[in-house]
Amino acid sequence: MKLLVTGGAGYIGSVVSAQLLEAGHEVVVLDDLSTGHEDAVPEGARLVRGTLRESAADVLGGAGFDAVLHFAAKSLVGESVEKPGLYWDKNLGESLALLEAMRTAGVGRIVFSSTAATYGEPESTPILETDPTRPTNPYGASKLAIDTALAEYARLHGLGGVSLRYFNVAGAHGRQGERHAVETHLIPNVLRAALGEGAAVRVFGEDYPTPDGTCLRDYIHVADLGRAHLLALEACAPGVHEIFNLGSGTGNSVREVIEVCRTVTGRDIPVEAGPRRAGDPAVLVASSEKIRARLGWKPEHDLTAMVSDAWTFLRSR
Ligand code: UDP
């Protein structure tokens, strides 16, 4: 298939682009390089530099694309609270420009990078796709609005759409890995501390109602996550919008993650206790039963493999 990958110079978009090329697809990446990296775009993919608003219509028009995989987004929760307008504009506004460009060009399939942040503070665990969506920040709210727009475009324009709601993505896939200028995520920060870069790892809260007092999160390897996109692409059906959670179905605590990082790196990682981070729920674990049952997807890599691949990637740079 001929595929447009928006945000293909970013972490997850670059991994999925590589996997699509490995599967024999033709890949064009559209990315404004605001947070992505030109050299993260895998060899064999063509890069068009631009925003969706400026360039989606030009790239898609008359070019015979079969589908779009949409990753381009702003994704920092804290920044979204400080600048909600930026998140509505970049995430929802630019996505609407993309959807209109697809409609004009007659491209009928999309796989969208949604997020666990659409659910907000869960009422029960593991989280099901049918659970209430009550995002607690503009990042999650803007992603949820895109899910809603996709459902409407499916209902009213016959679009075939799949939203994949990611939980905690980690690891690397060959040359593609996590390279955020502003890094807020636990595993890359712990591994940077293991490298001796930066300060001790701060554990955000040890008084949660969990077995060791630290937050539980559902970690998923980026290569497993990527495979789900290829399955979702095949499963897009005209007029239907489907939502699937993507996680491993189990939770690991912050303390457990740090211990795995110590084992994998063989280094003594300095850790200090800190206060809770605003907006962090105690437990965020996905039910991935729907995607297992419907698309036959299951994770193949455990937390040790995620940390190990992220460590190899970090040291290669
Ligand atoms: N966390 C931490 N120290 C850090 C970064 C994260 O204790 O330097 C905790 C955070 O409070 C959360 C978990 O690690 O409980 C995962 O956070 P991350 O930012 O990686 O992902 P999130 O779950 O927020 O999407």
SSE series:
EHEEHEHHEHEEHEEEHEEHEEHH
Shape call: globular
Parts with pLDDT < 50 across at least 5 consecutive residues: none
Rounded average pLDDT? 97
Number of helices: 10
**Helical content, roughly?**
25-40%
Strand content: 15-25%
| Radius of gyration, taken over Cα atoms and rounded to an integer in Å | 19 Å
Structural class: alpha/beta
Strand order of the largest sheet: 3-2-1-4-5-6-11
Cα end-to-end separation = 32 Å
Strand count, sense and closure of the main sheet?
7 strands, parallel
Ligand names: uridine-5'-diphosphate
Number of strands: 14
Index terms:
317 residues; alpha/beta; seven-stranded parallel sheet; 10 helices; globular; binds uridine-5'-diphosphate
What is the secondary structure topology, with strand pairs?
Layout: E1 2-6, H1 11-22, E2 26-31, E3 46-49, H2 52-60, E4 67-70, H3 77-82, H4 84-105, E5 109-115, H5 138-157, E6 160-166, E7 168-170, H6 186-195, E8 201-204, E9 216-217, E10 219-221, H7 222-235, E11 241-246, E12 252-253, H8 254-265, E13 271-274, E14 283-284, H9 289-295, H10 303-315
Helix pairs in contact: 1-7, 2-4, 4-5, 6-8, 6-10, 8-10
Bound molecules: uridine-5'-diphosphate (UDP).
